[in-house]
Specification:
Largest sheet: 8 strands, mixed
Low-confidence stretches: 1-6
Mean pLDDT: 92
Oligomer: single chain
Number of strands: 8
Helix content: 40-55%
Order of helices and strands: HHEHEHEEHEEHHEHHE
Shape: globular
Length: about 260
């Protein structure tokens, strides 16, 4: 997990996790994991720990919920969020070297992490290794090239999202993740789309923080000028004020079992 978050990044990401769209995504992830009381489960790349909390409450005091991340800021938030749940814990490490024995977990979640990983097969093999026989995994990744956005300048928007892609180590991952899972030994692979649709640009909607992040990153990478970045966001605000704002992107939930499941 080479991607690093500073404190400002952590606060911004935490706000996005509170949006209704991402709350629904967490519920879809939990449904795919099929957790039972007393099981051991982990969220690999746990961020601020919202999903770890849901896992901990689902597996109960006889189970175990582990938040795994390489960011101290994220793990601090996960630890604080789960301080009243003794079955929850955190581990600071990378996906490439998970410090767990073989066959440790009944279920693993991995949300929006693999795009930052250069060696996808090695990361999948590590998760496969620490899953118990018939263990379940749920992975979510996004194809940002499929964003539908009502923007005044299509050329500028393309430059914005090209820079966003360039910042990822493994962009456009959903289209090739199923065969990667099969090659890593996973079975019973299912794929479903999770739309994130916003028709308002308010701070309580996912796309508000996300598009501001895209504009900032594109400017930092030299793909757009500061004026272009500010103008692009101003266009979103104008569209919002006129009732014409529209944003949609699909995330893809991949579910699989280590040995085929039931």
């Amino acid at each position: 997990m080479p991607f690093k978050f500073d404190e400002e990044d952590a606060r911004s990401l935490e706000q996005s996790y509170r949006t209704p769209e991402i709350a629904l995504q967490r519920q879809r992830t939990l449904n795919a994991l099929k957790l039972r009381p007393g099981e051991n489960a982990a969220d690999v790349g746990c961020g601020p720990g919202f999903l770890v909390e849901e896992i901990a409450r689902t597996v109960g005091p006889r189970g175990q919920a582990v938040g795994i991340d390489n960011s101290p800021q994220m793990l601090s938030r996960t630890r604080s969020r789960n301080k009243v749940l003794p079955q929850a814990s955190v581990v600071e490490t990378t996906l490439q070297q998970l410090p767990f024995d073989d066959d440790t977990f009944d279920a693993l979640a991995c949300i929006q992490l693999l795009l930052f990983i250069a060696d996808i097969p090695q990361g999948l093999r590590e998760m496969h290794r620490i899953l118990k026989p018939d263990g379940r995994i749920a992975i979510i990744e996004t194809d940002w090239r499929g964003v539908v956005l009502n923007a005044m300048d299509d050329s500028l928007t393309k430059r914005m999202f090209t820079a966003w892609d360039d910042d990822a180590v493994s962009p456009n991952l959903p289209v090739r993740l199923k065969p990667e899972l099969e090659a890593s030994g996973f079975k019973d692979i299912g794929v479903e789309g999770i739309p994130i649709l916003n028709t308002a640009f308010g701070v309580k909607n996912f796309s508000s923080g996300m598009l501001r992040g895209v504009a900032l990153k594109a400017h930092q990478m030299g793909a757009v000028t500061e004026d272009e970045a500010k103008g692009w966001i101003a266009d979103m605000q104008t569209k919002d004020a006129g009732g014409a704002y529209f944003f949609c992107v699909y995330r893809f939930l991949f579910s699989a079992c280590k040995n085929g499941g039931d």
